[in-house]
User: Which sequence fits this backbone?
């Protein structure tokens, strides 16, 4: 059955007939979309419509009520636990709240995954941590605790931790929320750079229209009214061609059309 | 409503055409002055069922705030229920715009008019919930035991520095409160015993009573209850907050087991510290008995000492210590379990903390009862 899916599906990540629910409360149903290797994919939709929930399903924190999430044709939840662990290790995740471990310094936060999964010695780890922190503009903040830095800085530190192991797939939940326009732009550049240099697939939840048009290859729209997805595709093409007024309103902030 | 308030905000009605009601607003409509009751409008509409349209006249209206808007929203809602059209032409410009925004958001379907489930299905749902909850507890205990086994074979992954910090927090820093409580418990035991034993001239047996009661029961039990309130609650709050901040998710996605990384060091810390605290509490309790003995009952210090030594044997001491280890595990498990189960809000962390303490104390008392039965059966 997994084999069959693999033959049908060349995509890197495929979400098929996914229904997400908390108990009896169905958040979204019948989601179908695919994400290619090295793609920047954006999840859009109004506040509270289930974007973070979708992300949590994709990274294997919540089991779907129905449907599947396939990685290279392999169904995440049908896989054996060890296989799931192996898949998860390919993910880097930035949570909406940053989710830094509050009892550890930034350096420790970033170095934990490296210590866990590589055999580098401590000075190599230190260099790697310094590199990751400087990539997000936090050089020199190694010894700070999460409670001692600002919300935007926490987000960026979370980003550094997500990138620590050079993962195949990066998941970002609203990475630019709380960042000033210049930092947000730098973040976009960083994402494109990661894609170019490491061929990383990036899945982002965001509302920032500027970055959506600047970096997205594809996107999916979640609609809270019908509790399913409206459409998927390239945002520029969607803006030009989609007949759906909701898509237009969202992509133009309701200012035209 | 006072007379002046009624003057300040006037509300009156006029029939304009056969099917049109005009509502007049006058004076100052501010929520802190008290506004006319809405049911005046309701009554007016009900007593004239021919109305199909409502208009507003606000020429006399001098001042308004959100109170005016909430009144208008009630009018709008009532009219739409009664299938009466509302014309907002007559409203002040600002109010008109705010009303447009306030009524534009589609109201979520609320479940207020949901009929309650029948009794049987509620009983069923509750039963399923109980089964579910017990399975969660068993799951947790199983996973914790696995983590502990992994630790024994040296494969568990956690930070040694975390363990050190937790040990310090639930060991050394708990000493003052443990000293105070166990000293007082020893004192109380000695007083109660002294009064009774004096009647028989058997004062010296206060030493036996305090010694055995402290070492066998009260030392372990009191440290258990103190640590449940102090450390069990702290564990639940720490893990609950980590749950809120998605920190536990972050561990899971990195393939680091929260069981090993968070629960195991907490369990180890209590396993190590509880027996020490228990021995210390025993000592404090006996010391309190000693003071009562020589201060109130005029016993000789050495006499009290030898009497205690004779009464308290190794069996009693080790029984207390074994109990304290078990209590430590129970406290750590209930604190961590409730913390991990915590919802994702500040109030959920509060609930988790409370329920951690309750769970731990219940477990402690129940296991003490089981111990008593077993000891009785074995004749210890
Ligand atoms: N743990 C939970 N239990 C029950 N319901 C939940 C839970 N988490 C989220 N929800 C509900 O699921 C829906 C989607 O939440 P989600 O966090 O995915 O929204 P979102 O699209 O990420 O919103 P935002 O843009 O504000 O972050 C919301 O209606 C929320 O109330
Ligand atoms: Mg979200």
Assistant:
């Amino acid at each position: 059955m997994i084999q069959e899916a693999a033959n049908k599906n060349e995509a890197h990540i495929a979400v098929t007939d996914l229904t997400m629910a908390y108990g009896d409360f169905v958040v979204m149903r019948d989601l179908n979309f695919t994400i290619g290797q090295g793609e920047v994919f954006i999840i859009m939709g109004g506040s509270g419509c289930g974007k973070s929930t979708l992300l949590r399903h994709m990274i294997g924190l919540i089991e779907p009520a129905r449907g599947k999430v396939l990685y290279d044709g392999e169904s995440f939840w049908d896989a054996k636990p060890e296989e799931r662990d192996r898949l998860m290790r390919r993910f880097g995740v930035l949570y909406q709240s940053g989710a830094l471990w509050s009892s550890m310094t930034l350096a420790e936060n970033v170095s934990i995954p490296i210590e866990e999964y590589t055999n580098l010695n401590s000075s190599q780890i230190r260099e790697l941590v310094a590199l990751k922190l400087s990539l997000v503009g936090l050089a020199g903040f190694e010894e700070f605790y999460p409670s001692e830095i600002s919300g935007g800085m926490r987000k960026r530190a979370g980003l550094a931790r997500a990138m620590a192991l050079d993962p195949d797939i990066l998941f970002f939940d609203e990475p630019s929320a709380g960042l000033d326009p210049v930092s947000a732009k730098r973040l976009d550049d960083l994402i494109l750079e990661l894609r170019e240099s490491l061929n990383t697939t990036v899945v982002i939840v965001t509302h920032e229209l500027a970055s959506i048009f600047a970096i997205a290859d594809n996107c999916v729209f979640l609609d809270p009214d019908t509790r399913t997805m409206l459409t998927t595709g390239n945002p520029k093409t969607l803006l030009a061609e989609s007949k759906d007024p909701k898509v237009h309103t969202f992509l133009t902030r309701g200012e035209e059309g | 409503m006072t007379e002046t308030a009624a003057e300040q905000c006037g509300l009156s009605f006029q029939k304009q055409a056969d099917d049109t009601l005009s509502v007049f607003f006058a004076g100052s409509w501010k929520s802190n002055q008290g506004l006319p009751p809405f049911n005046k409008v309701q009554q007016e509409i009900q007593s004239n069922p021919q109305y199909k349209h409502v208009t507003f006249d606000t020429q006399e209206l001098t001042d308004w705030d959100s109170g005016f808007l909430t009144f208008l929203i009630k009018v709008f809602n009532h009219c739409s229920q009664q299938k009466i059209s509302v014309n907002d032409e007559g409203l002040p410009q600002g109010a008109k715009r705010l009303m447009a925004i306030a009524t534009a958001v589609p109201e979520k379907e609320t479940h207020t008019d949901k009929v309650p489930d029948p009794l049987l299905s509620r009983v069923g749902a509750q039963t399923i919930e109980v089964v579910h909850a017990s399975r969660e507890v068993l799951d947790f205990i199983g996973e914790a035991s696995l983590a502990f086994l992994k630790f024994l074979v040296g494969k568990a992954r956690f930070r040694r520095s975390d363990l050190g910090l937790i040990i310090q927090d639930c060991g050394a820093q708990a000493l003052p409160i443990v000293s105070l409580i166990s000293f007082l418990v020893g004192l109380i035991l000695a007083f109660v015993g002294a009064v009774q034993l004096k009647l028989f001239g058997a004062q010296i047996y206060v030493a036996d009573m305090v010694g055995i009661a402290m070492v066998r029961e009260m030392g372990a039990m009191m440290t258990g209850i103190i640590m449940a309130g102090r450390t069990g609650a702290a564990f639940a709050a720490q893990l609950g907050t980590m749950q809120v901040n998605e920190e536990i998710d972050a561990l899971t996605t990195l393939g680091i087991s929260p069981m090993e990384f968070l629960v195991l060091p907490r369990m180890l810390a209590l396993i190590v510290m509880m027996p020490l605290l228990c021995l210390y509490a025993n000592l404090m309790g006996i010391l309190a008995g000693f003071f009562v003995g020589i201060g109130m009952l005029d016993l000789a210090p050495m006499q009290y000492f030898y009497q205690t030594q004779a009464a308290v044997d190794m069996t009693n001491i080790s029984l207390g210590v074994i109990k304290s280890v078990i209590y430590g595990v129970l406290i750590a498990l209930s604190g961590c379990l409730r913390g991990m189960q915590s919802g994702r809000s500040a109030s959920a962390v509060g609930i988790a903390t409370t329920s951690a303490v309750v769970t731990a104390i219940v477990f402690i008392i129940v296991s003490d009862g089981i111990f008593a039965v077993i000891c009785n059966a074995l004749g210890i």
